[in-house]
């Protein structure tokens, strides 16, 4: 079975940006019956985007946004189903954590769907005990305190 080389890095081209937005919609919004365009928000320009590529095709994505002086928010973590369980999501998250540390952020927050909570726990995130309904889906607020570099 052929396994393409997976590259994880920031977006470098307009085509990669378009592919990333489409992937977000395909995985995170289309199953909820949401239209194209709902995968974007007003924070895209100020955020740091990471992608996973296989043969120049975006197969995974995640975003980090600074929300306060020392706090960041991770959103839109997605990997195509056929590429899951291969460590790609973990590698993307590790890159975002490294970026957060470079930016001297001390805490990262995220909202996890139920099926993703253990994935984030394995990366060191903890549940805060708060839940919220986001897009009609129960999400769990999670956070991680980052070690000083």
TrEMBL record:
**Database matches in Gene3D superfamilies:** 3.40.630.30
Give a GO molecular function annotation for the protein.
acyltransferase activity, transferring groups other than amino-acyl groups
> Membrane-spanning regions, if any?
none
UniProt keyword annotations, A-Z:
Acyltransferase, Transferase
* PROSITE patterns tied to this protein: GNAT (PS51186)
SUPFAM superfamilies with a match to the protein in the record: Acyl-CoA N-acyltransferases (Nat)
Q: Domain (N-acetyltransferase): give its ranges.
A: 6-147
Matches recorded under InterPro entries: Acyl_CoA_acyltransferase, Bact_Acetyltransf, GNAT_dom
Q: What is this protein called?
A: GNAT family N-acetyltransferase
Source organism (scientific name) = Aphanothece hegewaldii CCALA 016
């Amino acid at each position: 079975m052929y396994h393409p080389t997976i590259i994880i890095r920031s977006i470098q081209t307009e085509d990669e940006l378009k592919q990333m937005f489409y992937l977000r919609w395909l995985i995170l919004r289309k199953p909820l019956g949401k239209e194209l365009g709902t995968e974007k928000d007003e924070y895209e320009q100020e955020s740091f985007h990471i992608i996973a590529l296989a043969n120049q095709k975006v197969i995974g994505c995640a975003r980090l946004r600074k929300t306060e002086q020392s706090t960041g928010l991770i959103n839109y973590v997605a990997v195509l189903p056929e590429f899951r369980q291969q460590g790609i999501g973990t590698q993307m998250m590790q890159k975002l954590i490294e970026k957060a540390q470079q930016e001297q952020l001390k805490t990262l927050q995220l909202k996890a769907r139920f099926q993703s909570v253990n994935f984030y726990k394995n990366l060191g995130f903890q549940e805060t005990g708060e839940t919220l309904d986001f897009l009609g889906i129960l999400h769990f607020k999670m956070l991680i305190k980052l070690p000083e570099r």
